[in-house]
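Our consortium's second objective concerns turning raw sequence data into structural hypotheses that experimental partners can test. To show how far this objective has progressed, the report includes one record in full. It was chosen at random from the queue rather than selected for favorable results. The single chain below, 112 residues long, was entered without modification.
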Amino acid sequence: MLNLIYLQDAAATGAQQGSQWSFWIMMILIFVVFYFFMIRPQTKKQKELQKQRESMKKGDKVVTAGGIYGFIKDVQDTTFLVEIAKDVIIKVDKGSIYTVAEDAQNAPSEKA
């Protein structure tokens, strides 16, 4: 009788350990899927945008995140001076420059 209880207890412990391993394997697989389908593409996109912002120079036509079109008049450390109309110059943070205007015009429309 005592041997039967011991065998049942050992079998239950083995099943618990197996379920713990399968739990950790599933968690790792979920993380890998999130990394390759969500985190990695977003990081890649951010690096490309940062590289594009660093390559902008005086005279480039740009679009801000707010949708304002203009030309870069001066490049500073963390900001651009953007001319949006004749003699109207605004100071814009580099992070708010979304794209070069030519890229925005050539992008495919989201309208179907």
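The partners drew two points from this record. The longest strand covers residues 69-75. The two ends are 74 Å apart (CA to CA). Both points have been shared with the crystallography group to help prioritize constructs.
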